[in-house]
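Homework help board

Subject: predicted structure for assignment chain

Our instructor gave us this sequence and asked us to write out the predicted structure in token form, then describe one feature. I got the tokens but I'm not sure how to describe them. Can anyone check?
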Amino acid sequence: MCGINGISWENSNDIIAMNEATIHRGPDGNGTYVNNGVSMGHVRLSILDPTAKADQPMKNETDSLVLVYNGELYNFKEIKEKLVKKGIQFLTDSDTEVILYAYQEYGTSIFKELNGIFSFAILDKANQQLILVRDRLGIKPLYYGFKGSEIIFSSELKGIKCSLGLDFSEKRTWDYLLSSNITGESYYSNVTSLTPGTYGIFDLNSKQFTTEKYCQLTDLINEKQYHKQSQLTEEKIIDELDELLNTVVKDQMVSDVPIASVGSGGLDSSLITAIARQYNSNISVYHVKVDDEKCDESKYAKQVAQHLNLELKTEVLSKSNYLEYIDYCIEMEELPLSHPNSVGIYLISKKAKEDGIKVLLTGEGADELFGGYHRYKAYQKKLMFNRLPILPTIVKKFSNLLIHPGLGGFSTEDVSNYLEQASCFSFNVERSKFTDELQKAFSFIEDDNARELKTYISTDLQYYLPPILRRTDRMSMAAGLEMRVPFLDNRLLDFSLNLPLKHQINKYELKYLLKKVGERYLPKDIVYRSKKGFPLPINDWLGDNNFKNCMNKKWLAQNNQINMKHCK
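My token output:
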């Protein structure tokens, strides 16, 4: 994993400053390209082919293309094999060179074929274009802004700040306070992030910038595949998911440096660890132990590690080190922290890096793909109550109490309002406004309740997942370490979007199908234990139960004194 930077003018000092501002993302190498009316920079975290031959910026054989790339491509070997058959000779074993020549051969049409976590920029000299690309789900960041008619891009706002004064937007602070999403993933009105599944083309002659989606989530929904999976026996579809998970995890363990796994003691990370162990019997497991009896889940992590006969390495998260690092984590996230556990993720990344680990496998994304959040059950019940042959006023008065045992204190007028306004992380208001595109894509599902719930779950990929991915990237890269997210592999995303609802949520269980696979690898009490989601005693540690408001104040306090300290 790395950091990329660029500007559409030639200035060595500017691009060097941008690299220095993002050096934490790539402590192993630092390179620049200043020519042909652009400046491009790269800071490298060496994982595949750590030799100097694979350093960036990287040029093709004819010097007509220049690439800076951040990420991992999991199907690069298959793409490389096709390119070799076309006569292309490779000088490295890196995935970087594969992207370079894949674009040379196929142009922008290759983007939809890439399976990985990535953001990159290509200077196409022949067409006088600077092309920016981001992965399907936005797992890797990419920001851009404009200085007059010129474009600036970077993996982080720290890089952008070196060449562009940023305009603070009060409106975006309200976006944060009212939802988990922030327009453009920044508090600044003149900088935005490239939308996931999108590429942008900046014409170096006309100075025009256009964007185009190369992957829409709705494009992945396939009626034929959905009905095919509906016809499979339970045992057969468990087998299919088991086999797919093994393929994905094995592919995502590709690395020329040491790799380990995160182990929370919950189903998702434990299952990834158990599968990874089949391909590396000595893989280490890293766990964050919370220094609070009510929040400590270390006994479950120990149980999993003992069951798999793996070494468990523990980092203690206490009030003391939480307060010590929280301001630094806000600085690294470049936004108020959306999740209280961000500090723990940073500390575990820091510990792993100190142990010589450069890659950690995580369980992020399983809840969004396989139906793991309690609100899905709540919404399922809400749909059922809406169709009961009783007076609507009675439903409005009592359904919030029936759906969840803790809702009596909410003053929402009905369950729909509750679902729009409340969740453990301030439920995104837009989250429950089903997009027309998703509803149309699932129109082949005949049962109204199943179609609505399937749509509801799928919108989390657009509305709830982005802050989680931002946290994972920023906290790991702050320590110069790469976190991979096997559950969000293209193949598992395609599989889950076309998974019949009964395999995600049945009458009694959330994440039903994943738990059935989990039974093959883990103790049942781990598979079926109640979901906690990395709880922390926030009120005791911060003296404020309103975490989001507290983080917002801290961020504003930091950034009222912006002094460009990242730029040297």
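Reply (TA_rk): Your tokens look well-formed. For the description, you could write something like this. Confidence is low (pLDDT under 50) at residues 399-434, 561-568. That's the kind of observation they're looking for.
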